[in-house]
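Entry 14. Ran structure prediction on the chain below.
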Amino acid sequence: MLQLLYDPDGFFASRAADPSLLGPTVVVAAATAANLVSMAVVMAKVTGSLDGTPLLRLIASISYSVSLLISTVGVFITWVAVTAVVRFLLARRGRTQPFRDLFKLLGWGYVPAVCSATVAAVATVLVYTQVTFPDDPARLSAFFAARRNDPAFLVSRLSFLLFSVWQGFLWFSAVENLYDVSARTAAAVVAVPTLGWILIPLIGGLV
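Output, structure tokens:
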């Protein structure tokens, strides 16, 4: 796996003929786990600060548990979606490969996502464990908005951008080696999911 860091072309070239599912699954699962740390910290602080009936705490716990579940499934769904988009765009250019092979190789591209989510988790712990959460659910939106520009979150946002560029480069290398296409074609194809990966969270205020 270290080869992925210093020689991604060689890494994907050696696996293009017979890619394994185990490695990329572990990588995507690690990215999911890092995301869950951030959500768990916030969930614990919110539910612990609510001033109200046990029913209100129960509703909040259920709400955040559902959010944890969605976050867990969501990372794997993006893996499938990115693969589908890349395969569709390549098929339009007359290039076809088994979905499963592309799926396995693109999963390795989530290594930067593990790094990005880890930085975000550290930022979340640093910021939210040092403040008192409001006891009124109606004030939570303003509370979170006021902390979006905390230096720790600004660093997290910048790291997300940098790691996302790296992620796009790994997807580029995977496509180039599996499909044996030109660098221009591979770059044009992976630009679509890479831009989506970057813009959707930024526009939605998720990072």
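The CA atoms of residues 62 and 68 lie 10 Å apart. Will compare against last week's run tomorrow.
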